[in-house]
Design a protein that fits this description.
CATH superfamily of the largest domain: Glycosidases
Strand order of the largest sheet: 5-4-3-2-1-9-8-7-6
Structural class: alpha/beta
Distance between the termini: 43 Å
Number of strands: 29
Helix content: 25-40%
CATH class of the largest domain: Alpha Beta
Shape: globular
Strand content: 15-25%
Number of domains: 3
Number of helices: 18
Length: 710
């Protein structure tokens, strides 16, 4: 199957059901090698009871498939795949290259990654390899050839899983192999040492290079390492891993027509993101993602929603696959808090509402031994007479009842998503470099604040890059777009002048793609478009707030400057920046550009959002959405499915505008009676044509919902 085939997810859901009645994917990682073979029969029996239709097999099984170099043992995997096929369970088959076995690392110690401090990783965990290692690449290719050749025609296999969570534990690597690869990458990028020296600004601190051999990865040094060197090394490291994926995917595609994917890691829980998923998504037949809640985050359901929206952005708005999440607690956080009753269903439905054509988990059976033995599974240590198992079975039933949603796309009140948030990987990476005005200024945190504001308002949001075609959006928000390429700046400027509405926050447009300051006035690339001239950053102290004339207080950031052509919507009322604009609106061409020069609290941001949305004619799915209620919509062929999820502790009733609407909930059969009662913790899905939940005229139809509560 060709890369970027938009029908790839449809291909999978059709194989899980039938071309006439596709099915949403449900299941997860299955690791039978961890258990005695007599357990396998019970596994498939319980899978059928739960409604599991897709499992990932072989992800961490290299040491069993190749117990010594060049000696392969596939008998156990043959039996597992045959058993799954006999029970109607499809397989996402891994090529097992994520974790080399001990014999490999022992024989080829030079294949192990090295930290910035020069410490070589040992083996004994997972992903113990350097992407630049020719020994690793050769062994991974040989294993992939064996697996793809052997199982290309196996009837259980419907898709291929390359590696696992690239870069999660072994990137970046600062080895000599990485240094050589980095130099070659830089020669291709810049062509000459003069070009590199200019891009890196090496006249500063006497860093000018006179030979390619002098260039190293940004290893630990006495103080801050050249920021452009750090940025380029992040770019190189992502590309180096991508070359590993492409090589293994090419081998698989030479044997098999099934879609090929690898699992992404979303925002990576706010940690450093090791790869540029926008570039990687171009190589995926199906975009798939792993997501785990940060248990102590009181609004982790909103972070989940943001990550799902970002994943849909990588998939260019097409359906994608949730490859991993947890049924309850994970094993790797400081406090691994179990999910509350009903949370498993709510989390899974959030992903589906935002474009996932299935919900898979890590893992099927909770492990008895190893580092992840306290990570929850679909089948818990304590068996089937448990909250987790009952909710797993309930989720399987729910996904079967929603099979018709497969292949649909996320839409908003106008019939499409009207708002997008800009999230460039380079901008994030560059914003996380050291020696910046404030450690509190965070691209991820500011992005999440803006997503949360739209989430609270019930307005769907996409994610796109600054260089993407934005003409279909009524409103574009660029939170802390610190680094901006010339092409990105031109694209955003053209979007506004053609009639778009663009919101820019502080610390945006400050540097070009080489992390060089855009001279003149802040915010650099946007100053003329926004009609402001800011002369100095005045970041605030920890916990400090500054009073504004509107939209509540500002925190984190403050700027001294003036409006040139912009209308000032709020000014700073106190301190050294008193009288400076805090929020502005400027007409440019046929559109409007807005500047927000500080961080606003949720209440102030919500108030400001009403201004932007009124200007851009952006409407919510439901007016005055109750607190902690999430709303989403998917559409296909004139049919809408509206997902209503109550994360709160109070029962609510959602209005369904339009007289004469009737319908039932799928599980309870309750009459909607012109409105939807949604209990605390409940989920409902309403099917309609021209859904009145979106404020559109109702047409006579039968509406269905699915409902579950605590």
């Amino acid at each position: 199957m060709d890369s970027n085939n938009t029908a790839a997810m449809d291909y999978i859901t059709a194989r899980l059901g039938s071309p006439e009645a596709p099915a949403l994917a449900f299941g997860g990682d299955y690791n039978p090698e961890q258990w005695p073979e007599e357990t396998w029969t019970e596994d498939v029996r319980l899978m059928r009871e739960a409604g599991v239709n897709l499992v990932s097999v072989g992800i961490f099984s290299w040491s069993l498939l190749e117990p010594s170099e060049g000696a392969y043992e596939f008998g156990w995997l043959d039996r597992v795949l045959d058993l799954l096929h006999a029970n109607g369970i499809r397989v996402d088959l891994a090529n097992a290259t994520a974790s080399p076995p001990p014999w490999f690392s022992h024989k080829y110690p030079q294949s192990l990654p090295i930290t910035a401090d020069g410490v070589r990783h040992s083996y004994g965990s997972r992903q113990a390899f350097a992407a630049s290692s020719p020994e690793y690449r050769r062994a991974a290719a040989a294993l992939t050839e064996q697996i793809a050749g052997r199982y290309s025609d196996h009837p259980a296999v419907v898709m291929w899983h390359v590696h696992n969570e690239y870069g999660c534990h072994n990137q970046p690597d600062f080895s000599d192999g990485a240094a050589a690869g980095f130099r070659s990458w830089l020669e291709r990028r810049y062509g000459s040492l003069d070009g590199l020296n200019t891009a890196w600004g090496t006249a500063f601190w006497s860093q000018r290079y006179s030979a390619w051999a002098e260039i190293l990865p940004p290893r630990t040094s006495g103080t801050w390492v050249n920021p452009t060197q750090q940025l380029d090394f992040a770019r190189y490291s992502s590309d180096e891993l991508l070359e590993c994926y492409k090589a293994e995917a090419a081998i698989i595609r030479s044997h098999s027509p099934h879609p090929v994917t690898t699992n992404f890691m979303g925002f990576n829980m706010g940690l450093h993101q090791p790869v540029d998923y926008w570039r990687w998504a171009e190589q995926m037949d199906v975009v798939s993602n792993d997501h785990y809640l940060i248990a102590e985050d009181r609004r982790n359901f909103q972070e989940l929603a943001a990550t799902a929206d970002l994943t849909r952005g990588w998939a260019k708005g097409k359906p994608w696959l949730l490859m991993e999440h947890s049924t309850s607690a994970v094993n790797w956080q400081p406090r691994n808090i179990a999910k509350a009753p009903g949370e498993l269903l709510r989390n899974s439905m959030q992903h589906v509402a935002r474009g996932a054509d299935g919900a898979l988990f890590f893992q099927w059976r909770a492990s008895r031994a190893g580092a992840e033995k306290f990570h929850s599974g679909l089948l818990p240590h304590t068996g089937t007479d448990t909250k987790v198992w009952r909710e797993v079975v309930q989720l399987g039933q729910a996904l079967r009842s929603l099979a018709e949603v497969s292949g649909s796309v996320v839409t908003g009140a106008s019939g499409r998503v009207d708002v997008t948030i800009i999230h460039d990987t380079d901008a994030r990476w560059a914003s996380e470099l050291d020696s910046h005005p404030s450690v509190d200024a965070s691209n991820i945190a500011e992005t999440r604040r803006w997503h949360d504001a739209f989430y609270r308002a019930g307005i769907p949001t996409d994610f796109r890059q600054s260089t993407d075609d934005l003409s279909g959006y009524r409103l574009v928000v660029a939170p802390m777009q610190y680094l901006l390429s010339d092409s990105g700046a031109a694209n955003l400027d053209g979007y506004v002048r053609a009639g778009g509405h663009l919101v820019i926050t502080y610390f945006s447009g400050i540097v070009d793609e080489n992390d060089h300051i855009r001279l003149g006035s802040y915010p650099g690339a946007f100053s003329g478009l926004l009609g402001v001239q800011m002369e100095e950053f005045l970041p605030l102290r920890a916990g400090e707030a500054v009073r504004l004339s509107g939209f509540g207080p500002g925190t984190c950031w403050n700027e001294l400057g003036k409006a040139t052509t912009a209308e000032v919507l709020a000014v700073v009322d106190e301190g050294p920046a008193a009288g400076s604009p805090a929020v502005t609106r400027n007409h440019a061409g046929s559109g409007r550009a807005y500047y927000v020069a500080t961080t606003l609290a949720p209440e102030g941001l919500s108030e400001l959002l009403t201004v932007f949305c009124a200007d851009a004619a952006v409407l919510p799915l439901i007016p005055e959405l109750p607190a902690n209620v999430e709303i989403g919509r998917r559409s296909k062929d004139g049919t809408d499915w509206t997902f209503c999820i109550n994360h709160g502790t109070d029962d609510v009733r959602l209005p369904l505008p339009g007289a004469g609407l009737t319908g039932v909930e799928l599980l309870s059969g309750a009459d909607l009676n012109g409105g939807l009662s949604l209990a605390a913790g409940a989920v409902a899905v309403v099917r309609s044509r021209n859904s009145p939940l979106m404020g559109e005229p109702a047409s006579p139809s039968t509406n269905h919902s699915i409902h579950s509560s605590h």
